[in-house]
Amino acid sequence: MLSIMKIKFITCSGTNEHTNIQGLVNLLSTYPQAEAGIQIWEDKCAAHMPRYHWIKELHAYLNDKKQIVNLAAHINRGWVEGFCAGNLAPELEEILNLQDYQGNKFIKRLQLNFKIGREKEPDINRLIDTIKRFSKQRVILSYNSSNAELINQIYSQGIMFDVLFDASFGAGIMPKEREKAAFSDRLQGYAGGLGPDNIADELAKISAVTPKNAEIYIDAQGRLEDDNQHLSLEKCHAYISNALTWQTQNI
Fold it and tell me: How confident is the model at residue 166, as a pLDDT?
């Protein structure tokens, strides 16, 4: 049976200082659903580090060209603990508040990569207050068995967020089966072992557990890397193209 499940974002995670800015912008501009995920934390993105300067260069390039693309900051380690507590590192605050040439937020989505038991458990009230501070950006919460109770409590208070389901929590391990959406009225994302060669098969599995009028998104990283473990724009192109081909064939 054909599906009308819609793919809202096709996320290529791991864009960084090794990624050619012009090539990345060309890719994202070609595909409106494409999104670049930038992994940031204190050991990689402090003000004196290449990733911080690369983000600033990307920002300047896009504003000079008067272009807007989908960008997500994937916030990790000490920076995500600080965000949850309402104490943002100055560099993080600066990056999240950059504006595009139209005066809107440059970074469109903020993914909070905390995992209770690995990072300190957030104080729910402080976390909600911080999410509200960034109400003009979509916040993504990583949903897994460790975090489920807290996220359910946040949901019960009517806070808007997107959900990323990745049972391996960034390890790139494909699950035996794809889970139903945690919440019927939140955008559900799927990660774990996705890549150009298997995305059609995995989208079929996701479609089987997704209501036919729902939007989802997909997020890949490990299988998009080259032999040097840097993101390959060629693999990103194939991943995005193959996902969109599957969607076209199944509308």
Answer: 79
